[in-house]
Amino acid sequence: MTDTTQATLRNTDSLNQALTLTIPNDLGGLRLDVALQRLLPEHSRSRLQAWIKDGLVTVSGLASTSKTKVWGGEAVVVQVQIKPEQQAFQAENIPLNIVFEDQHILVINKPAGMVVHPAAGNWTGTLLNALLFHVPELKDLPRAGIVHRLDKDTSGLLVVAKTLAAQTNLVRQLQARTVKREYRAIVWGQIWRNGMIDQPIGRDPRSRTKMAINRAGKPAITRYEMLERFSVQTYMRCNLETGRTHQIRVHMQYLKAPIVGDPVYGFRGIVPIRAMTQTLRDAVSQFKRQALHAIKLGLLHPANNEFVEWQIELPDDMKALLEAMRHEDPRDDDDEAFNFGGLQTEPYLADEDYEDDDYDDDEFVEDEFDSEDENLAMDDED
User: Residue 181 phi/psi, 5° resolution?
Assistant: First the structure.
């Protein structure tokens, strides 16, 4: 802002500010956008033009255009629009479901719908914002102590460090694969035996916002176990040996047993409608996220190196879905079992908080973050 004019600044809300200016005589004869750019050099001319077009700039109380001439002495009010990313690392009073807390770590039960880390499209309302309110000291740690992520619509347990020493320790545990993570998933199709998927995961070459089985990707190992088998779905336990973005979701797709409700890694809306009762159809249609929950977390406590473990219940929405499946009429032995195997001959390569994507040591030290990922929205090991 130049010294040739007086200006007052007042807050109108957390993201917007009203700036009142008086056009100095030495800028008389200029277009409005040019005069404002001289007075507000911290804002680009294109941004100022956009604000004028959107009616966020008035001259003597009247809306104007960028081409409007000013002659000096006019009172101009500019509704300054602060970029949302400038508010990304602000504390917000958001309730947290804290499973465990001491002076070294926090264990959080993250609800579905909450993004872990701010990124494009989700600059506020994230777990990071909530953590900064609950523990203000986390502002001094990279990523406010976050060491791994869950996808926006995956619920369950996350560990957060409260000190730099604990954060470094947890990152190294994740790299050494000593952190134990168990998930529960409801998938389409009937799984008849337990197994392991060892397939590398990387960016989908056709869409950088999605992941896929990629021979040039990072190693990814998921062990799975059938807990209950129903007419068209299976309730499963999944254990991660690695933590790649969307790992379980991509691996279940590879298994041709995509997770119920997954909008990204499902089989393009193909659902066995005729094989379900109306009650189950309604339950599935009302389930608005991937049926995936991080139910158990175990690690070596950074302070004493003793193994500690936490387990929580399934969330209510997954409980309700399971109950609907349990009340289905049992399948006759003569009925053909439903599975997705006949829909295609090759694993579907993805054409998408974040699931549990662990931070690499270099990434942690440099405090880098791929903003696109959190919007795979991200968020963030699924």
Answer: -130, 120
Rounded to whole angstroms, the Cα distance separating 373 from 117 reads 10
Residue 175: CA count within 13 A, CB half-sphere: 12
Residue 102 among the catalytic residues: no
Instruction: Single out the catalytic residue among 151, 153, 262, 382.
Output: 151
d(CA 165, CA 307): 17
Per-residue pLDDT of 301-345, as tens digits, reads 999 999 999 999 999 999 999 998 888 755 544 444 445 444 333
| CA-closest candidate to residue 289, choices 92, 158, 115 | 115
Q: How many CA atoms lie within 13 A of 354 on its CB side?
A: 33
Q: Is 309 helix (H, G, I), strand (E, B) or coil?
A: strand
Cβ atoms of 238 and 211 within 8 Å: the answer is no
Whether the pTM exceeds 0.85: the reply is no
CA 155 from chain centre, in angstroms, equals: 11
